[in-house]
């Protein structure tokens, strides 16, 4: 009986020590112990037809579900674009033969982000599935070139800036691309819609700051074909794959 009572007292004495030995602090700081309800981040990404910038802002609907607003600005290039120069003249600038327009795409969309796993308390990675969709508009800017012409009055060659015309501009009379700013006053919008899905990896040991790598795919559809190349068919559908890297923060 005495042995049983002594064993009980021994277990009671050791139980606080056992509890302390099993206790692990969840985070290293007060900020990391807070469940932040909102998040925003900015990212740069490359895709199969160019590059772009992204901004997202979101808020929790539940612990593992977040609604998202996103905005994209990106450039679209045609798969057949090839830079070239005029080999018959010196100090020429490179240009893309056959390119009618430079395309910039603006997107504004809404979607959800699903957290697929819980990040370990000591830091690690968190998987996120994000799907968004919304409005898209292609901004079509005409391409201008420096073109070689013959001045009959002074009997010499001169350079003139002209909008690319496949019927009169050829590799032997194109000197190179004109100023990047030329043509911005002639931009035409092509409205459309888009949908996007991506799998992201959020990593780092600080809960308040985010570092995200995301890979995914997107589809853009415009109400009418977008002219890019003079020698290629104009398309309404654009399917792209992308990879992005972003930085952001969580807050309340």
Short note summarizing the structure:
This protein has 252 residues and is mostly beta strands. Helix content is 8%, strand content 58%. The chain has a single domain, classed as Porin, CATH 2.40.160.
Name the features.
252 residues; Porin; 58% strand; elongated; disordered N terminus; eight-stranded antiparallel β-barrel; mainly beta
Notes on the structure:
The radius of gyration is 29 Å and the shape is elongated. It has an 8-stranded antiparallel β-barrel with strand order 1-2-3-6-7-11-12-13. The chain has a 3-stranded antiparallel sheet with strand order 9-8-10, with no helix packed on it. It has a two-stranded antiparallel ribbon with strand order 4-5. The termini are far apart. It is built from 1 helix and 13 strands, in the order H-E-E-E-E-E-E-E-E-E-E-E-E-E. A hairpin with a 4-residue loop joins strand 11 and strand 12 (209-226). It has a single domain (40-251), classed as Porin. By secondary structure, it is mostly beta strands.
Describe the strand arrangement of the main beta sheet, using strand numbers. Answer: 1-2-3-6-7-11-12-13
Helix content: under 10%
Q: What is the C-level CATH assignment? A: Mainly Beta
In the CATH hierarchy, the architecture is Beta Barrel
Query: Which band does the percent of strand residues land in?
Result: over 45%
Largest sheet: number of strands, sense, barrel closure: 8 strands, antiparallel, barrel
N- to C-terminal distance: 59 Å
Structural class comes to mainly beta
Domain tally:
1
Q: What is the H/E order?
A: HEEEEEEEEEEEEE
In DSSP terms, counting alpha (H) and pi (I) runs of 4 or more, how many helices?
1
Shape category:
elongated
- The average pLDDT is 86
**CATH fold type:** Porin
Residue runs with pLDDT of under 50 for 5 or more positions: 1-31
């Amino acid at each position: 009986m005495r042995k049983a009572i002594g064993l009980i007292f021994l277990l009671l004495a050791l139980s606080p020590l056992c509890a302390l030995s099993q206790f692990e602090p969840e985070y290293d700081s007060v900020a990391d112990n807070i469940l932040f309800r909102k998040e925003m981040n900015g990212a740069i990404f490359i895709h199969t037809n160019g590059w772009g910038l992204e901004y997202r802002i979101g808020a929790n609907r539940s612990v593992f579900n977040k609604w998202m607003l996103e905005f994209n600005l990106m450039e679209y290039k045609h798969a057949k674009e090839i830079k070239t120069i005029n080999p018959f003249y010196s100090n020429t600038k490179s240009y893309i033969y056959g390119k009618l327009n430079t395309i910039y795409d603006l997107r504004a969309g809404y979607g959800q982000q699903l957290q697929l796993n819980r990040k370990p308390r000591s830091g690690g990675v968190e998987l996120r599935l994000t799907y968004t969709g919304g409005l898209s508009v292609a901004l079509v800017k005409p391409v201008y070139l420096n073109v070689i012409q013959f001045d009959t009055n002074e009997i010499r060659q001169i350079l003139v800036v002209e909008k690319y015309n496949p019927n009169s501009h050829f590799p032997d009379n194109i000197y190179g691309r004109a100023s990047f700013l030329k043509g911005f006053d002639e931009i035409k919008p092509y409205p459309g819609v888009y949908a996007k899905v991506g799998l992201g990896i959020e990593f780092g040991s600080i809960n308040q700051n985010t570092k995200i790598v995301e890979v995914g795919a997107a589809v853009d559809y415009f109400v009418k074909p977008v002219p890019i190349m003079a020698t290629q068919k104009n398309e309404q559908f654009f399917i792209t794959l992308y990879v992005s890297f972003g930085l952001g923060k969580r807050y309340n």
